[in-house]
Automatic annotation (TrEMBL):
Gene3D superfamilies xref list: Vaccinia Virus protein VP39
Lineage: Bacteria, Pseudomonadati, Pseudomonadota, Betaproteobacteria, Burkholderiales
Name of this chain's protein: Methyltransferase domain-containing protein
Pfam families linked: Methyltransf_25 (PF13649)
Domain (Methyltransferase): residue spans on this chain: 24-90
């Protein structure tokens, strides 16, 4: 069943950049695989999804809000999180809101389908496929630590991924030291 698989390797790889004990928002959290991952690492987790069945399944991991974020208001207006995680989800109108939800010193870990995926499966509509460099543009105000845009073969899919940090004003003159996993 979708949402019950292991956490995304991309999310796992960059989880160390989330401040210890920090708050994590999982957008379109599904059944909570990333909520459970971060809760297990000692983070306070919040998820949002429109599917009541998914929300019920994810609720054991932490706070989960049922909301239609594409057609209704953003349920976290004015809130910022130490990390915002998004996988396999794209609603372009929300990209600025998602980026703005990353707090100072926080991380955005985002991975979803990209142009080219229409040649191997679903999603195939351009509305749900990132254009080359689109996540880089959306994260222009953040410090990009890692970015990928390419093809994965297990299962076959085209993806775009980014991990980006919002610097604290006090960090402006200090070179960032973000450990890159080997």
């Amino acid at each position: 069943m979708h949402g019950t698989e292991s956490p995304s390797p991309w999310v796992q790889r960059w989880s160390h950049l989330v401040p210890v004990g920090g708050t994590v928002l999982d957008v379109a959290c599904g059944q909570g695989r990333h909520l459970r991952w971060f809760a297990g690492r000692g983070h306070a987790v919040t998820g949002v999804d429109r599917d009541p069945t998914a929300v019920a399944a994810a609720a054991s991991a932490g706070r989960v809000v049922q909301a239609d974020i594409e057609n209704g208001p953003w349920p976290f207006e004015g809130q910022r999180f130490d990390a915002v995680v998004v996988t396999n989800y794209l609603w372009r109108a929300l990209l600025p809101v998602i980026v703005d939800s990353v707090g100072e010193g926080g991380a955005l870990i985002y991975e979803t389908f990209a142009t080219g995926n229409e040649s191997v499966g679903r999603p195939s509509r351009p509305d749900f496929l990132l254009q080359p460099g689109e996540l880089l543009q959306a994260c222009a105000g953040l410090h990009v630590v890692a970015y990928e845009n390419g093809f994965c073969d297990h299962p076959e899919r085209f993806v775009q991924r980014i991990t980006a940090l919002r610097k604290r004003p006090s960090d402006a003159s200090v070179p960032a030291r973000h450990l890159l996993p080997e």
